[in-house]
Amino acid sequence: MKIRDIIGAAALCIISGSVYAVPPANVRGVDLAAVLAAHDRVRQITHQPNEDARPLRAIRTIVLDPGHGGENQGALGVCDVHEKYLTLELAYELRARLQAEHPDARIILTRYWDHGLGLSERIELANKVNADLFISLHYNAATHPRALGFETYFLRANETIPGQEEVKGEMVASNGQVVGAPEDQVEQPVDPIVFMREDLLRQKQNEESGLLAEVVNSSLAGHLNSVNRGVKQANFGVLRGAKMPAVVMEAGFVSHPEEGHDVVSVEHRTALVDALHNAILEFDEKLTRKNNP
Ligand SMILES: [Zn+2]
């Protein structure tokens, strides 16, 4: 079996919903736990320490979500490139940078190639691997060709509970457990202590997502030569149900006659990688200070 197949099988295992830390012992004759452990080890051994690199202290697992994929092509830019390719390219480069500077951290992508993935599947994966951070990567498009700039979104506070329409064919309780088909559902009294605890956790997650959005957006402003459209709140399905700070980043308009050319350039992608890496470091510092006042 080629190494590409092994990595593919490992990624498939992640995407198909297995817990990342404990993959099934054998998939097509490959011991995935051993493969992942070997990858972690090789990364740590081959790591070239960089004097200037700041270590991550509060963040251990980062999930990067390249928007769209497969049939869902995303926006079509003025350069005839679909958004799904730009987001995947950006995710791979950001992952390589983070992994090179922070060999102790696990950087996981929601997809590793061009295939479709539901919105709730993306955030479920991040929850399953206990991610400390989730960034969904996107590029913008508008019918108005003059729209340009970058923006960062986090979820509106009253929409943090995953909607049932997101979970096809299953009814799901607020604790995420499948409770059976609608016809055999029995009303269960909600334990007020459990409800309060969950509510506090959701509040904390939403506050931290807002902070992450601020940090990401101001770092984009420092690295991109474009219009700052600011931090916004919206009801994005990909953010609903997140248990960690989670944002959607819109890196620029593929539909703009000039920015549409910029966003496909190596320079623009490098600036984005710099901006997001910087933002992750800054957010890590803020979290560390918050957790150890
Ligand atoms: Zn998009």
TrEMBL record:
<dbReference type="Pfam" id="PF01520">
    <property type="entry name" value="Amidase_3"/>
</dbReference>
<feature type="signal peptide">
    <location>
        <begin position="1"/>
        <end position="21"/>
    </location>
</feature>
<keyword id="KW-0732">Signal</keyword>
<dbReference type="InterPro" id="IPR002508">
    <property type="entry name" value="MurNAc-LAA_cat"/>
</dbReference>
<protein>
    <submittedName>
        <fullName>N-acetylmuramoyl-L-alanine amidase</fullName>
    </submittedName>
</protein>
<dbReference type="InterPro" id="IPR050695">
    <property type="entry name" value="N-acetylmuramoyl_amidase_3"/>
</dbReference>
<dbReference type="GO" id="GO:0008745">
    <property type="term" value="F:N-acetylmuramoyl-L-alanine amidase activity"/>
</dbReference>
<dbReference type="GO" id="GO:0009253">
    <property type="term" value="P:peptidoglycan catabolic process"/>
</dbReference>
<keyword id="KW-0378">Hydrolase</keyword>
<feature type="domain" description="MurNAc-LAA">
    <location>
        <begin position="123"/>
        <end position="281"/>
    </location>
</feature>
<dbReference type="GO" id="GO:0030288">
    <property type="term" value="C:outer membrane-bounded periplasmic space"/>
</dbReference>
